[in-house]
TrEMBL record:
S-methyl-5'-thioadenosine binds at Q275, E349, D383, A384. It is a multi-pass membrane protein. This is Polyamine aminopropyltransferase. The keyword Cytoplasm does not apply. The chain crosses the membrane at residues 31-57, 63-84, 91-114, 134-157, 169-192, 198-218, 230-250. Its EC number is 2.5.1.16. The gene is speE.
Length: 539
C-alpha cells in the first residue's frame, strides 16, 4: 500500500530505451542491421519455398500445398508481429533468440518431413493426417518467428539513430524485399540443383544462425548482460553444431529413407532438373520398377497389363504414324512396335534422364525390348503441349498420352480442353487418341472430368477400366489398383484389338467389353471440361 506522502511509482519505461552502445559508427551500424535483415529475409523465403517443394513432391498437387503453406505462414507472420511487441524492450536478445530457433526449425524441417514420409508410409494412407498436420505446424512455427523479426529489427535500427517512422520502414522493408528476391532465386537455381532439399535447408539454417547471432553478439553485445551473451553464444553454437552434424549424415539418411520408401534394392537414384528418378530391382529375379517423384511409373507385375491396355485398343485402326506423349521408358513404344505396318513412332519425353535410363540400363532396356535401337523410333525431349502446337495437321494416325495422373498439378495442362484440341488437329481423319486418365475407383470424378474434356474437344469417346495388383515399394500394402483410359476419335471408336497383331497376353475382346462396362458403372454425370484458365483436377 502506498503511503499518502510517498513518492509516486515511476512510469513504465517506453519501449525505446535510448541509443545503443555500438562498437562502430551509427552509419555502419545501420548498414549492418539492414544487411542482417537482407540475409534473414532471404533465409525466410527459402524456408517457405522448401516447404512448398517438399510437400508438393511428397503429397502432389502443388497448388494446394503452396496455398496451405503460404496462407498459414502469412497468417502466422501477423501473429508473430503482434507477439513481438512484448519483446521490444529486449530487442537485441529477443532477435538473437528468435533467429537461433528459426535456424533450427527451418534447417531441420525438410529432414523431419521426409523422415515422417519415409517411415510412416504413404501420405495418402492411414498416416495422412499426421504428416499434413506436421506441415501446418512447421508453417505456423516459421511464420511466427519470421513475423517477429521486423518489429525487433525496427526497434534495433531506431536505437542506432532515431528517424521518422516512414523512413525507417522504407529502409527496412527495402532490405527485406530484396533479400526475399535473392532467396527466391537462389532456391530453384542454386540450392535445389546443387545441394538438394535436405542439405540446402540445413545450409540455409546455418546462414540464418550466423547472420542473426553475429548481428546481435557483434553489434549489440554491450546491450546484453554477460549471462545473456553467454546463453546466446551457446545456443547458436549448439544450433550450428546440430545442423553441421545432420549435414554430415544427409547421405546416410537419404539412403536409409530411400530404402524405407522403395525397398532395399534401389539401383539408380538421381535428381534431374525435372524430377527424382529411382530404379529398383531388375536383377536377381526381382521385378524392375521405375519411380518418378515417388510414384510408380513402370515395372512390377502389372507393367504389361497397363501398357497393353493403353496401346492395343488405340492401334486397332490405321497406325502407320504414332505419337507417344510421355512414355520415355520405351514400354509403350514396345507395344506399338508389335503391330505390323508401323512406319514411324515419335516419343516425346520431357526428361532426358528417363530416356538415358531406358537406353542404357540393361534391365530397363531388356524390358522395353531395346526399342530405341529401332530406326522407326524417334525420341525428342520436349514439353508435350509445345510439341502438339508445333505438329502439322493430320500428322499422326494414333496419339498415345502416357503421362502422370491428371490431378498432379504439373500435368494438369496436358489434360485440358486446349490440349485435346491440339491433339485433335494433329490426328488424321481416321486417327485415334488414347488417354491414361488415372485410377477410376479412388478418383472417379477426375477420370470422368478427363472424359468430359475430351468430348468437349469434339471427339467421341469410349472409356474403359482395367484392374491389376499394385506393385508399390517394399513394405507398402498390396492393394487392388485400377487404371482408367479414354479412347477417342472423330467418329465413335470401337473398343477392340487388331486381328493382325499377336494376341496381347492380358487382353481379349471379352475383357475389353467388361472393361468398358466397369468404367460405365462409375460414371459421374454433367461434369464441366477442364481448361487452362479453369483447371478442375486439383483441389
Amino acid at each position: 500500500m502506498i503511503e499518502p506522502h510517498a513518492p509516486a511509482p515511476p512510469a513504465p519505461a517506453p519501449p525505446f530505451s535510448g541509443p545503443a552502445r555500438l562498437p562502430v559508427r551509427p552509419g555502419t551500424g545501420r548498414y549492418l542491421v539492414l544487411a542482417g535483415a537482407f540475409v534473414c529475409a532471404a533465409c525466410g523465403l527459402v524456408y517457405e519455398l522448401e516447404l512448398v517443394a517438399l510437400a508438393s513432391y511428397l503429397m502432389g498437387d502443388s497448388v494446394t500445398q503452396a496455398s496451405v503453406v503460404l496462407s498459414v505462414m502469412v497468417f502466422a507472420m501477423g501473429i508473430g508481429s503482434l507477439a513481438a511487441k512484448r519483446l521490444r524492450r529486449h530487442a537485441a536478445i529477443g532477435f538473437g533468440a528468435i533467429e537461433a530457433v528459426l535456424a533450427l526449425v527451418g534447417g531441420c524441417s525438410a529432414m523431419a518431413l521426409y523422415a515422417v514420409f519415409a517411415w510412416t508410409g504413404d501420405w495418402g494412407g492411414m498416416w495422412a493426417d499426421g504428416p499434413r498436420c506436421l506441415l501446418v505446424v512447421f508453417s505456423l512455427a516459421m511464420g511466427l518467428l519470421i513475423g517477429a523479426e521486423v518489429p525487433l529489427l525496427m526497434e534495433l535500427i531506431q536505437r542506432i539513430r532515431r528517424q521518422d517512422a516512414g523512413g525507417a520502414v522504407a529502409d527496412l522493408f527495402a532490405a527485406d524485399y530484396v533479400g526475399a528476391l535473392v532467396g527466391g532465386l537462389a532456391f530453384p537455381f542454386l540450392l535445389l540443383p546443387l545441394l538438394g532439399q535436405l542439405t540446402g535447408a540445413l545450409l540455409t539454417g546455418a546462414v540464418n544462425a550466423v547472420a542473426g547471432g553475429g548481428l546481435v553478439l557483434g553489434l549489440f553485445r554491450r546491450d546484453l548482460t554477460p549471462r545473456g551473451r553467454w546463453l546466446l553464444l551457446v545456443a547458436n553454437v549448439a544450433v550450428l553444431g546440430l545442423l553441421a552434424s545432420l549435414a554430415a549424415l544427409v547421405g546416410d539418411f537419404e539412403r536409409a529413407a530411400r530404402q524405407a520408401v522403395y525397398g532395399g534394392d534401389v539401383r539408380v537414384a538421381l535428381r534431374t532438373g525435372e524430377q527424382e528418378v529411382v530404379l529398383t530391382g531388375g536383377t536377381g529375379g526381382r521385378p524392375l520398377r521405375l519411380f518418378l517423384d515417388g510414384r510408380l511409373r513402370a515395372g512390377g507385375r502389372d507393367e504389361r497389363r497397363y501398357h497393353e491396355a493403353l496401346v492395343h485398343p488405340a492401334m486397332a485402326g490405321p497406325h502407320a504414324r504414332v505419337l507417344i506423349l510421355g512414355g520415355g521408358d520405351g514400354l509403350a513404344a514396345r507395344e506399338v512396335l508389335r503391330h505390323p505396318g508401323v512406319e514411324r513412332v515419335d516419343v516425346v519425353e520431357p526428361d532426358p534422364a528417363v530416356v538415358r535410363l531406358a537406353r542404357g540400363d540393361p534391365a530397363l532396356a531388356r524390358l522395353n525390348a531395346h526399342v530405341y535401337d529401332d530406326p522407326r523410333v524417334r525420341v525428342g525431349t520436349a514439353d508435350a503441349f509445345r510439341r502438339l502446337r508445333e505438329a502439322a495437321p493430320a500428322a499422326y494416325d494414333v496419339v498415345i498420352e502416357d503421362l502422370p495422373d491428371p490431378d498432379v498439378t504439373s500435368s494438369t495442362k496436358l489434360y485440358a480442353l486446349e490440349f485435346y484440341g491440339l491433339a485433335r488437329r494433329a490426328m488424321a481423319p481416321g486417327g485415334r487418341l488414347v488417354v491414361h486418365a488415372g485410377p477410376v475407383s479412388s478418383r472417379p470424378r477426375v477420370f470422368w472430368t478427363v472424359e468430359s474434356t475430351v468430348r468437349a474437344a469434339g471427339l467421341r469417346t469410349v472409356p474403359y477400366r482395367v484392374t491389376g495388383r499394385e506393385s508399390g515399394p517394399a513394405g507398402a500394402s498390396r492393394a487392388l489398383q485400377d487404371w482408367g483410359f479414354v479412347l477417342a476419335a472423330r467418329t465413335a471408336p470401337s473398343l477392340g484389338l487388331d486381328p493382325r497383331t499377336p494376341r496381347p497376353r492380358t487382353l481379349t475382346p471379352t475383357s475389353l467389353t467388361a472393361a468398358a462396362r466397369a468404367a460405365a458403372r462409375t460414371r459421374v454425370l454433367r461434369l464441366p471440361p477442364s481448361t487452362l484458365v479453369h483447371p478442375r483436377y486439383t483441389g
